[in-house]
Design a protein that fits this description.
It contains 15 helices and 10 strands. With 414 residues, it is α+β, with helices and mostly antiparallel strands.
Length: 414
């Protein structure tokens, strides 16, 4: 695309020692601006990816990769259903999920009650590792023990060993009239998922106890929670199961929390566009620098034109000069961004030690360290975007240089 002579002259102009100091300053500012923009964009997207991964891990720790349920009513014979779908998943566990109210003293709050089997539930969720006090084994059938989220326990003002009353929306007829069904449960543990949605409104108990309280037929459950070897296979496995077992309702994690993950991706896209403006501003510096170089080199361009060089070759000279600055800035920003993204936690910790402040206090935030996930695709896209903007910035100055008329330029210099 470029002539060898154009490449030689363009690189010669870039490193010319007699170049105006102000032009050199503008060039350095443009390179620094591109480098800072690329560094910032790589770091911010890596941190956003880290937060997305952390939230996805916590959400999937509670909702499982896939759920199988009847289209209407409870799922009967869950053992038989689990056997049929066993080839498609790594693990399966039944659950019963109902709505109710928990009361302790004068405090009453709405909760989601989930009945699980303590020996199977850890195979499809991370709840076992999130229990701060107690264990899953404390949920014995017929013992009516209950595990509460940390915020829910705090709101009710209960500790392990305390009694809480679970009130169901179902009613029963007694000699005193129609009364709601209720049962006393013993708090046997407290868990902390790290998401307020679950820590403030979820209670776990044994599947048999919930089924008995809510009058669910023996052997029937709300559904099955499935775990896959690779969570990103959930949509394809869901489609295969839907085609194989059309009588069941199959739902994967990408649809159950579609709005949340779509919002995260939208935020990433908007952030990419906003931070790309930093690189665009640096590209304007390249425009200003090249315009000044063209003005300064009018006589040289006129002489080259009289020697037979074409207008296209003149354009190539200044495109190469601006592209070289863009490559230097993009490479510097790439190295700085990757280094900062891979060590962001250590950098934040050092700043906290220097200023004596804590960015993520464990009393306020569940995430106490800044997560980071560097993706090669993001780094490549950012680097190519930076180089592309710098290349576009060279078009007008190069076009202006190609329009210089040798006679008029030399007469002005005379």
């Amino acid at each position: 695309m470029f002539y060898p002579l154009a490449i030689f002259i363009g690189m010669r102009y870039t490193r010319a020692k007699r170049q105006c100091r102000f032009i050199s300053f503008i060039s350095a500012s443009a390179v620094l601006g591109v480098a800072l923009g690329v560094t910032t964009l790589i770091t911010v997207l890596a941190v956003m990816n880290g937060f997305e991964q952390e939230l996805r891990h916590r959400i999937l720790g509670m909702i499982a990769h896939l759920t199988v349920s009847e289209r209407a009513g409870p799922l009967a014979d869950w053992q038989g259903v689990a056997g049929k779908i066993a080839p498609y998943c790594a693990a399966a566990a039944p659950f019963v999920e109902e709505q109710g109210m928990l009361a302790h003293g004068t405090v009453v709050t709405g909760v989601t009650v989930r009945g699980v089997l303590p020996d199977l539930e850890p195979t499809v969720s991370t709840i076992g590792a999130k229990i701060r006090i107690g264990t899953m084994d404390n949920l014995a059938p017929g013992g009516f023990g209950i595990l509460l989220g940390v915020d829910l326990a705090r709101r009710l003002g209960v500790d392990p060993g305390d009694k809480v009353t679970l009130v169901t929306p179902q009613a029963m007829v007694t000699p005193l009239g129609v009364l709601p069904r209720l049962k006393r449960f013993t708090v046997v543990g407290i868990f902390q998922i790290g998401m307020y949605e679950y820590d403030s409104a979820l209670a776990l108990t044994h599947l048999n106890d919930v089924a008995r309280l809510f009058r669910i037929a023996p052997g029937a459950v709300s559904g099955l929670r499935l775990a896959l070897g690779n969570l990103y296979d959930a949509p394809s496995v869901s489609r295969r199961l839907g085609a194989e077992f059309p009588a069941y309702r199959i739902e994967d994690w990408t649809t159950s929390h579609a709005n949340f993950f779509r919002a995260v991706h939208t935020e990433q896209s908007v952030m990419f566009i906003i931070l790309s403006l930093i690189i665009a501003v640096a590209a304007f510096n390249i425009v200003a620098m090249l315009v000044m170089v063209v003005t300064d080199k009018e006589a040289d361009i006129a002489i080259l034109r009289t020697m037979g060089i074409t207008p296209g070759a003149v354009m190539n000279i200044f495109i190469i000069q601006g592209a070289l600055l863009g490559i230097i800035g993009a490479l510097a920003g790439l190295i700085g961004g990757v280094t900062l993204a891979l060590n962001i936690s250590e950098v934040v910790e050092s700043l906290e030690n220097v200023f004596g402040a804590q960015l993520f206090s464990p009393d306020v935030y569940y995430i106490t360290k800044l997560p980071s996930q560097l993706r090669v695709a993001d780094v490549a896209l950012i680097s190519l975007t930076a180089f592309g903007l710098c290349l576009i910035a060279t078009i007008y100055p190069a076009w202006r240089a190609a329009r210089i008329q040798p006679a008029a330029a030399l007469s002005r210099r005379a």
